[in-house]
């Protein structure tokens, strides 16, 4: 009864199943591994932030270029402030407000964006304290450049003069004459009534939405593997049932009567024809 499993058609089905199941399992395991890596990164970043609070700040050159390993490192930079911008639409402690972003020109003649602090309410130049004059030294956590996916980033344009939507070198390159560092720092201690902005984890790390997407994809791939097995079993069962029906002489019912004369005219047609002939004879 199961000899049909050795037919060319079923050999093709077997090969497909044997290839599809390992592929689905591999993809599911890969997505699960990416989720586990995100969990490990989240734990490592939490531990690193707790350790970095007590570590000695290193010069800016020691943490550049910005990488996932250096984001959040304590660093120190010296220079003079050459300008200031406000970054609206930023939330802190579940309150809406804005960042006060100072532009610090270092000894390398490059501009380092420094988030001096956060203030509540609508972004107004009059509400932000002016930048300190003269030579200053700032200590803070290194941060990666923001992007359009950053929470609170303003990408639609149309901001008033003196405001900035995204903290990055790309958004500042046309606003300052000097070169701009690729990263920025958030100052540890804010003055003049501002609140310090906590350091964020590196992009594409930690338990963010993408991490849980990896977990969802893991489940999908394993479901696909189970679906392949289920469909193989369904096809096998249908084939076995068809074989049993054939042995019992059970087949699809024919719509036509096998004993009927194929040349015979329908009853209605012959009756009408006979009536017409009778009428013609009487005339």
Describe the structure.
This protein has helices at 8-52, 169-172, 209-247, 267-282; strands at 58-59, 74-92, 95-106, 110-120, 135-143, 179-180, 184-187. It is of the alpha/beta class and 283 residues long. The protein has two domains: 2-48 and 210-239; 72-200, no CATH class. Helix 1 (8-52) packs antiparallel against helix 3. The model is unreliable at 273-278 (pLDDT under 50).
| Share of residues in strands | 15-25%
Could you say which overall geometry the principal axes of the C-alpha atoms support? elongated
Task: Give, in order, the helices and strands.
Answer: HEEEEEHEEHH
Return the structural class.
alpha/beta
**Largest beta-sheet details:** 5 strands, mixed, barrel
Keyphrases for this structure?
283 residues; alpha/beta; 2 domains; 5-stranded mixed barrel; 4 helices; 7 strands
Secondary-structure blueprint:
Blueprint: H1 8-52, E1 58-59, E2 74-92, E3 95-106, E4 110-120, E5 135-143, H2 169-172, E6 179-180, E7 184-187, H3 209-247, H4 267-282
Parallel strand pairs: 1-2, 4-6, 4-7
Antiparallel strand pairs: 2-3, 2-5, 3-4, 5-7
Helix pairs in contact: 1-3
Task: Please give a quick description of this structure.
With 283 residues, this protein is an alpha/beta fold. The chain has helices spanning 8-52, 169-172, 209-247, 267-282, and strands at 58-59, 74-92, 95-106, 110-120, 135-143, 179-180, 184-187.
